[in-house]
């Protein structure tokens, strides 16, 4: 065995060592062969040193990567660095004059205060939530009907520059080029002035109305109206006197549209809910709760029709008013004599 190992050590290289080992194995006993094979297993593998360098490099790279990850958050800046000042030469004008004084003084905003942004309400047009002001337009509010559906509410307006025409309007209607009706309230009409876009209003003057009491009508003599049952006789001069001021007539009684239940807002006449004592309504036999259905056979189902029939009182000599009282139909006949 010793002679075998001695021969192996004396080899000058791997090839010679291998040949010497083979010759020795062939000349040795079996036990020496086993020991020789075991010794050959402990020979270093090829590129062993290269593997060591590769492993060391991998470990170093992993360590450096972990170190970068652990210190990366602390190396980030907490705030944006200030921007660099512009080159001074950019503020120089012809002849080397410093022009930065112009931007510093800022003649358009010398106090340095930035105003609030301009919104729609700063323009000529105002939104619908702005407060309307009393209008100076030549318009006079005669009466209003406030419907449960605001789009169906009606304002009856007298236009003074158009021959004192009395016309009913609903929201979004144009009022003779002066304005556009926006909203109808009780005794008040709100519209947008077409000239300046401002919200304005007109209203019925309520002087003389106290605690909901209707205006006191002008005195009507007992002999002015002759009555026989449901037949009435009046003089033309008296009728003209009573209806000369439509605004006063409207304020002597209150009426609301008589809406048919389940019809989706269909109007069938107007119901009188209040009548001033000694008014023209009372002298004509009408009572609170009466529903005026038609006049001379024409249904009264809109303010426009009511105004039309009012104008006919000035010329017609015979007028028949169909009403509903207590659920029963009745007809009042009026004979107007010259």
Structural notes for this entry:
Among the domains are: 2-41, no CATH class; 124-203, SH3 type barrels (Roll), CATH 2.30.30.830; 222-337, Roll (Pdz3 Domain), CATH 2.30.42. The protein contains nine helices and 16 strands. The chain has helices at 2-10, 14-27, 30-41, 48-75, 100-105, 236-242, 246-251, 280-283, 303-312; strands at residues 133-134, 139-145, 154-159, 165-169, 174-175, 179-185, 188-193, 199-203, 225-228, 231-235, 253-259, 267-275, 291-295, 298-299, 318-325, 328-337. Residues 8-12, 120-126 and 208-220 have low confidence and may be disordered.
Secondary-structure blueprint of this entry?
Blueprint: H1 2-10, H2 14-27, H3 30-41, H4 48-75, H5 100-105, E1 133-134, E2 139-145, E3 154-159, E4 165-169, E5 174-175, E6 179-185, E7 188-193, E8 199-203, E9 225-228, E10 231-235, H6 236-242, H7 246-251, E11 253-259, E12 267-275, H8 280-283, E13 291-295, E14 298-299, H9 303-312, E15 318-325, E16 328-337
Parallel strand pairs: 1-8, 10-16
Antiparallel strand pairs: 2-3, 3-4, 5-6, 6-7, 7-8, 9-10, 11-12, 12-13, 13-14, 13-15, 15-16
Helix pairs in contact: 1-2, 2-3
């Amino acid at each position: 065995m010793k002679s075998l190992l001695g021969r192996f050590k004396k080899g000058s290289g791997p090839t010679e060592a291998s040949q010497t080992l083979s010759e020795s194995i062939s000349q040795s006993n079996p036990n020496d062969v086993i020991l020789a094979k075991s010794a050959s297993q402990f020979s270093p593998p090829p590129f062993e040193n290269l593997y060591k360098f590769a492993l060391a490099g991998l470990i170093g790279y992993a360590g450096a990567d972990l170190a970068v990850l652990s210190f990366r958050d602390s190396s980030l800046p907490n705030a944006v660095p200030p921007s660099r000042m512009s080159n001074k030469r950019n503020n120089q004008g012809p002849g080397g004059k410093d022009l930065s004084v112009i931007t510093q003084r800022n003649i358009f905003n010398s106090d340095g205060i930035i105003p609030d942004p301009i919104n729609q309400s700063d323009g000529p047009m105002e939104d619908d939530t702005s407060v309307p002001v009393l209008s100076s337009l030549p318009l006079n509010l005669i009466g209003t009907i406030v419907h449960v559906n605001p789009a169906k509410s009606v304002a009856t307006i007298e236009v003074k520059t158009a021959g004192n025409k009395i016309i009913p309007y609903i929201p979004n209607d144009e009022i003779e080029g002066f304005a556009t009706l926006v909203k109808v309230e009780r005794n008040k009409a709100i519209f947008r002035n077409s000239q300046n876009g401002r919200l304005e209003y007109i209203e019925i003057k309520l002087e003389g109305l106290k605690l909901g009491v209707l205006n006191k009508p002008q005195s009507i003599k007992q002999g002015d109206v002759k009555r026989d049952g449901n037949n009435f006789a009046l003089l033309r001069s008296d009728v003209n006197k009573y209806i000369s001021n439509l605004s006063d007539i409207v304020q002597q009684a209150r009426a609301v549209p008589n809406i048919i239940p389940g019809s989706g807002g269909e109007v069938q006449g107007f119901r009188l809910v209040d009548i001033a004592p000694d008014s023209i309504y009372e002298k004509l036999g009408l009572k609170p709760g009466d529903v005026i259905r038609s006049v001379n056979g024409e249904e009264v189902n809109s303010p426009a029709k009511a105004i039309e029939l009012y104008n006919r009182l000035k010329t017609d000599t015979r007028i028949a008013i169909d009403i509903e009282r207590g659920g029963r139909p009745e007809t009042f006949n009026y004979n107007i004599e010259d």
